[in-house]
Write a structure and sequence with these properties.
The complex is a heterodimer of chains A (about 325) and B (about 325). Chain A has about 325 residues and is of the alpha+beta class. Chain A contains 11 helices and 13 strands. In chain A, strand 6 and strand 7 form a beta hairpin. In chain A, helix 5 packs antiparallel against helix 6 and helix 10 packs across helix 11. The mean pLDDT of chain A is about 90. Chain B is an alpha+beta fold and about 325 residues long. Chain B has 3 domains: about 80 residues, Arc Repressor Mutant, subunit A (Orthogonal Bundle); about 80 residues, SH3 type barrels, CATH 2.30.30; about 80 residues, Alpha-Beta Plaits (2-Layer Sandwich). In chain B, a hairpin with a 5-residue loop joins strand 6 and strand 7. The longest helix of chain B is centred in the C-terminal third of the chain and has 19 residues. The chains are: A alpha+beta (about 325), B alpha+beta (about 325). The interface between A and B is large, with 125 and 125 residues.
């Protein structure tokens, strides 16, 4: 009697249940011949190539969800693939007992998940919230309704994040501001951080062991992951990257004059760390001269750069270009 | 912002099943409606999942999925009363851990929001982040977002909603005109480092969006709020459009389309033109547009109408003139 096709989620669910409840683990042939969704398609003493490939994909899919699907080699027969056993150790699968979340924490996490609206980050936050709901915590409604968003529009973001997880070196072309030609970079990606509204890659050059920060928007061609892995520690890389950017931001100071009563005067004063001197000049910290120049050019005649000279000429150059393009 | 969720993939459905079982285990008897409300999903999704769980299980000793190897539910209660009662359990004891990527998405989201009044307790946020790390199946991906120091206006907006009193402030629009406005705050929105409040504007008798960094002299009035987030439907896009909007044709380097933000919708027509693309944007006036174009020198320009080109050119030229005058 032909059986109806078992839905994918039923096969995946059955796989997880089977591997969770088998302490010794199951071999591939045990899985394919007995687990719901595979067994219906299993051919005894025949070719199960398609089914084996299905199992390989399923393993990846399940692991991607944070389910620790392990492979154990039988000690007597190391190297023999047929005797590999698969299992999901309960302690690594289950959320530890001492981790619980209050209603307020659940609210904060709900807000945090809303920050991502695009791509894999949005999918993953959604899944994380489903897992959080599993704990049955009620969520407190915040007084004020929020719709926060961090955008990830750079094409290089996803491949870099994947490379971070796989801990492999990446290659890309990087265009430094003011230069005509991009240069080829090969680095170990350590962290992705957003600072001042812009995404940066914090990386280590494996040949010089030097750390370097790249602006994602200056990566000009698709990022190519290599097969070479690295083993630098990354646990505090994001914090270090942000601290380094913060240091650069602290060091760089621009002095401006903003026309009173204009958009520039209102908004630039409100930037973090902005201060006004006794003579009425505005002092702003910045991370990247070219980005600040773009920002300041948008204010047109409302703001004039006094120093540094390099910033002043960068802004004039931009304005002149805009005039020329619209002449 | 309630958006339609994309159709669930098998992986999402698997996470849902793995999350739903422990929730049902903790609730001896729970209605489909309550469960749907708790997870924020349609009731039918709960019913489908329960039906699948009820016939799932492990191959068991006989490797043939005997009844004692399967979950079971009180079928009458389910079919007749829409109530869920698990009567037999297998394999699953607890909620699953977060994946490394899921945990990192929430951690980075929390970092981004750490400037909000809700996050004033820094130690509590740090504890929450460490719980996410410990609750992940592997070290979370190194990702960080700079905390946004949101200005004190936000705290006042929150107070306005909590106290139910209208908020008043000076607002300088993109034309450069300043005006006292009175609003009922409805929602705080953000895009990267830019924060907005959307509210019912009593001066305009309509919903309006205000940039927080353009707000000055905010005060709480004694007037009660007449509109709340629950009774006003907010348009999806931050920018308020009107039938009087002008069409402007712009030309942009393809890689920079994202920088045009909400000016260009996801569905906008993009016509290739040499190594650039052309697209039409709708604007209420040229004041915002000239600022945007001036911030993208050599990257984006206005093609037509001539008045829009002139607005951009005049804006940049008057700035160049100020520099030339030695300011």
């Amino acid at each position: 009697m032909p059986e109806a096709k078992v839905p994918n989620e039923e096969r995946l669910f059955s796989l997880v249940l089977a591997l969770l409840s088998s302490e010794a683990g199951l071999t591939k042939s045990e899985i394919l011949s007995t687990v719901q969704g595979y067994r219906q398609r299993f051919v005894h003493s025949g070719d199960n190539g398609n089914l084996e490939r299905q199992f390989e994909r399923d393993k990846d899919d399940v692991r991607e969800l944070g389910v620790p699907l392990e492979t154990i080699e039988s000690p007597e027969q190391a190297g023999n693939n047929h005797n590999l056993r698969y299992r999901i150790p309960r302690a690594d699968y289950e959320l530890p007992d001492d981790i619980s979340f209050s209603a307020e924490e659940s609210t904060l996490l709900g807000l945090a998940s809303m920050v991502w609206r695009e791509g894999s980050l949005s999918e993953e936050s959604r899944r994380a919230i489903v897992k959080l709901r599993s704990l049955g915590i009620a969520t407190a409604e915040p007084v004020l309704s929020y719709a926060p968003q961090v955008r990830v529009r750079e094409e290089s973001f996803e491949p870099l994040r994947a490379a971070l997880d796989k801990r492999v070196l990446v290659n890309f072309e990087y265009l430094k501001p003011g230069e005509q030609d991009s240069t080829q970079r090969t680095v170990a990606p350590l962290a992705l951080v957003q600072h001042q509204g812009r995404w940066h890659l914090y990386a280590k050059n494996p040949s010089t062991d030097q750390f370097k920060t790249f602006l994602l928007r200056r990566i000009v061609n698709p990022v190519r992951p290599s097969k070479k892995t690295f083993d630098y520690a990354t646990d505090d890389a994001a914090a270090r990257a942000l601290a380094e950017l913060e240091e650069v931001w602290q060091t760089n100071l621009a002095v401006l004059r903003a026309e009173p009563g204009t958009d520039a005067a209102t908004r630039l004063c409100k930037r973090r760390g902005a201060s006004t001197t006794t003579s009425g000049e505005l002092q702003l910290h910045f991370t990247d001269l070219n980005i600040l120049a773009d920002d300041l050019a948008s204010f047109g005649p409302e703001v004039v750069v006094i120093s540094p000279a390099e910033l002043r000429s960068a802004v004039i150059e931009r304005l002149t270009r805009t005039v020329a393009d619209h002449g | 912002m309630v958006k339609k969720s994309p159709p669930l993939r098998a992986q999402d459905k698997l996470v849902f099943l793995l999350a739903l079982v422990p929730y049902l285990m903790d609730h001896t008897r729970v209605s489909v409606a309550d469960t749907a409300a708790h997870f924020g999903v349609p009731e039918q999704q709960i019913r489908d999942a329960v039906r699948l769980i009820a016939v799932s299980g492990i191959p068991g000793e006989t490797a043939t999925y005997q009844d004692s190897d399967l979950f079971d539910i009180a079928w009458d209660d389910f079919e007749d009363n829409d109530q869920i009662v698990l009567t037999h359990l297998v394999a699953i004891d607890d909620s699953p851990r977060f994946s490394a990527r899921e945990a990192s998405a929430l951690i980075a989201g929390l970092q981004y929001l750490s400037g909000l009044p809700e996050h004033s307790d820094r130690a509590a946020i740090a504890t929450l982040m460490s719980k996410l790390s410990r609750g992940a199946s592997a070290e979370p991906t190194a990702m960080g977002v700079e905390s946004n120091e949101v200005d004190e206006t936000l705290a006042l907006i929150r107070e306005s909603v909590a106290a139910g009193r209208q908020l008043e402030f000076d607002y300088r629009n993109s034309r450069g005109e300043s005006e006292r406005r009175r609003i009922d705050p409805l929602r705080i929105e953000s895009v990267d480092a830019d924060w907005y409040v959307r509210g019912w504007c009593h001066s305009r008798e309509d919903v309006r969006t205000f940039r927080l960094d353009r707000i000055t002299q905010p005060t709480l009035t004694l007037e009660p709020i007449t509109h709340s987030a629950a009774d006003v439907s907010l348009p999806e896009t931050l920018f308020d459009s009107s039938p009087e909007d002008v069409e402007v044709l712009i030309e942009v380097v393809p890689s920079a389309i994202a920088l045009l933000g909400d000016y260009v919708s996801d569905t906008a027509r993009l016509e290739p033109h040499g190594d650039r693309v052309r697209t039409t944007v709708l604007v209420p006036h040229f004041h915002g547009l000239k600022r945007l174009i001036a911030s993208l020198p050599g990257v984006a320009s206005v093609v037509s109408p001539p008045e829009a080109r002139a607005a951009v050119s005049d804006w940049a030229q008057s700035a160049v003139d100020r520099y030339a005058a030695g300011q």
